């Protein structure tokens, strides 16, 4: 490999700003330095990145493809530097994790965290008025765990770390429990309970969720109490109600075709691009990226890979 990261950085800045002079000002270099670096990069890659026949250099079709790869390389380098910075530091005194998913699957990992960083205070936030991604973007949380969503802020990086399987449930003496399997009309005639802190994604065929009566709460534990009290039915993560289902306190509602089966909702790990994590945050991030802690369907945990 003959080209350097500096050349890639100058190429990316020139592509983003639309001129070599603007890229030079952004990077604190001279225009001739940027022009020469990009020309050498073209020679090294044996491709033409910019069309210089116009007043302002424009990316060629090849240049647009190379730009995507160059941006990915630079982002990976930033990740590497952030990880190295985190590992070289003393553990931070406190770590905040924003969670919009059941906490139960995290407990084994948190036990390991306790052993590895006994002096670090851990704050778990379950946002109601805002999202986990907003807390991370604002710097109020180092990491976030939330249902997959489109359009994260540009300042965030993310990676899917597992899936949540949602189950329809109610109390055993609820009228719906006497009519398994159920149709969409059956569900629509009864009150639906939902929590704003739980996954909001709906499957493509979600018309049956448009119930005539809907009660909403902000806290998932309040939702469970209402469900156990027989105040309605709910669709919520299997992880959250597996004990109640096993004890017979709640029953699973089975939907007739074409609605049969579990819903699957991705769970993303979120972190800020430009905010280096400390030693404890880096450790937790890497463990979460390599753990499929949220997978569970009606058959239980998946077999070990």
Shape: elongated
* Counted beta strands: 11
Oligomer: single chain
Secondary-structure element string? HHHEEHEHEHEEHEEHEHEEH
- The parts where pLDDT drops under 50 for at least 5 residues are 200-208
> What's the main sheet like?
7 strands, mixed
Could you give the distance between the termini? 36 Å
In percent, how helical is the residue content?
A: 25-40%
Share of β-strand residues:
15-25%
Total number of helices:
10
Overall pLDDT confidence: 83
Radius of gyration: 25 Å
Structural class: alpha/beta
Model description:
Keywords: DNA-binding, Transcription, Transcription regulation. This is LysR family transcriptional regulator. Residues 1-60 form the HTH lysR-type domain. Belongs to the LysR transcriptional regulatory family. It comes from Pseudomonas piscis. The chain has 305 residues and is α/β, with parallel strands linked by helices. The chain is built from ten helices and eleven strands. It has helices at 5-17, 20-27, 31-45, 61-88, 107-116, 132-137, 184-188, 220-228, 238-247, 279-289; strands at residues 50-51, 58-59, 94-99, 121-125, 143-147, 156-170, 192-195, 214-217, 234-237, 251-252, 263-272. The strands form three sheets. Strands 3, 4, 5, 6, 9, 10 and 11 form a seven-stranded mixed β-sheet that branches. Helix 1 (5-17) packs across helix 4. The radius of gyration is 25 Å and the shape is elongated. The two termini are 36 Å apart. Residues 200-208 have low confidence and may be disordered.
